[in-house]
Amino acid sequence: MDLTTVCAALGDPVRMKIVQCLARSGEKNCSGFEVEHISKSTLSHHIKILRESGLIQPRFQGKEHFYSLRKEDLDRRFPGMVDLLLNEPVLTE
Asked: Structure pTM?
């Protein structure tokens, strides 16, 4: 998890909204994200970028995929980042 990759992942408004959603509410499956007007494949693409950047982690339960923000890891690597994300207004598209 490096700062450049994390910042690049957070540079997209949809991904930022997903991270804010997870930071506020905890674990969610794909249908639980509060993003509108994007296809399932586009949402999957955003999830992949967030996962590969190290911001979120998956948990598999049968056919469902649940995602959570890696808060503890982020706080350890980038102190204050999660608090900063939570204090930002929720982005809208």
From this structure: 0.84
